[in-house]
Amino acid sequence: MSDTITNFGKVGVLFGGRSAERDVSIMSGTGVLQALRSRGIDAHGFDPAERSIAELAAEEFDCVFIALHGRYGEDGSLQGALEQLGIPYTGSGVMASSVGMDKITTKIIWLSKGIPTPRYATVAPGDDLEAIVADLGLPLIVKPPLEGSTIGITKVEQAEEFEAAVALAAGFDETVLAEEFVTGREFTVAVLGSGKHARALPIVEIVAPEGNYDYQNKYFTDDTQYHCPAKLDDALTAEIQKHAVDAYRALGCEGWGRVDVLVRESDMRPFLLEVNTSPGMTSHSLVPMAARAVGISYEDLCIEILRSARCKMVKAQ
């Protein structure tokens, strides 16, 4: 890959940022930065929470690797700034990043395409919570639709817990997402590429302590077990991977991403939860794990993602 590496020029690795996922982003970005440098790439870290867009422009990066998670890095806002600056960047463009960040809009698009996702309701101040519980049943999941890393999420098992769960989620987002709880096994599917060339990597099954794959169990303990490739029959594996790629394409994602999936215990039917357009790249992260299962090292994965960097918007004539 030496000929490709010399063509990257000066590379910025954007990590940190101002979102609730800042700490995870720092871990991701540090890993990416070290990986790129280990392959001789002229890579430099850049934290948008500590330095301005003007400083980003002044660095004259030839391209950037986005290792930011959540708001201001994964939601299309930074992607728009990079388009204005003409700096090629990894991952999805402005629209796909924005839509993928919003779990409600994502569901609307997926349902229009026949992609299975749990039933849901949006919750705004003054809504009839009893009616929502009656419709979705218990337990249900309450979450802020614009956050990631399980931040602000509550599993509601009793009706009297619903109001507090909504209040917690509303501390992050004005509108709250209430979602039917699907009892079953938890999986994730990494997707690489764009358009007709998008491909799914091996499925990862996540087995968390007591089924609680929360922020702590995601990033800071070794209690969660991961099985990759997941132990599924060939037909279900192909079905889940197809749904994941279809879901990724439906939002216009490109470069790389990760789609989270639940398989219902009662009938082994898959339901898609969300797409991550700038997934984690920490030592516990699932995209590098899936890549390793097909012989792609962490370093090679970073280079493949970086190779896809480009400005997505049509240039003015």
From TrEMBL:
Main location: cytoplasm
Keywords from the UniProt entry: ATP-binding, Cell shape, Cell wall biogenesis/degradation, Cytoplasm, Ligase, Nucleotide-binding, Peptidoglycan synthesis
Reaction it catalyzes: 2 D-alanine + ATP = D-alanyl-D-alanine + ADP + phosphate + H(+)
Pfam families xref list: Dala_Dala_lig_C, Dala_Dala_lig_N
Highest taxon of the lineage: Bacteria
Keyword set includes Zinc: no
Transmembrane segment boundaries: none
GO molecular function, one term: D-alanine-D-alanine ligase activity
Subcellular locations according to the entry: Cytoplasm
InterPro entries: ATP-grasp, ATP_grasp_subdomain_1, D-Ala_lig_Van_CS, D_ala_D_ala, Dala_Dala_lig_C, Dala_Dala_lig_N, PreATP-grasp_dom_sf
Pathway: Cell wall biogenesis; peptidoglycan biosynthesis
Enzyme class, UniProt record, top EC level: ligase
Enzyme Commission (EC) number: 6.3.2.4
Cofactor(s) for this UniProt protein: Mn(2+); Mg(2+)
Record-annotated ATP-grasp domain positions: 107-307
Matches recorded under NCBIfam families: D_ala_D_alaTIGR, PRK01372.1
Similarity section: Belongs to the D-alanine--D-alanine ligase family.
PANTHER family: D-ALANINE--D-ALANINE LIGASE, D-ALANINE--D-ALANINE LIGASE B
Chain's role: Cell wall formation.
Protein name: D-alanine--D-alanine ligase
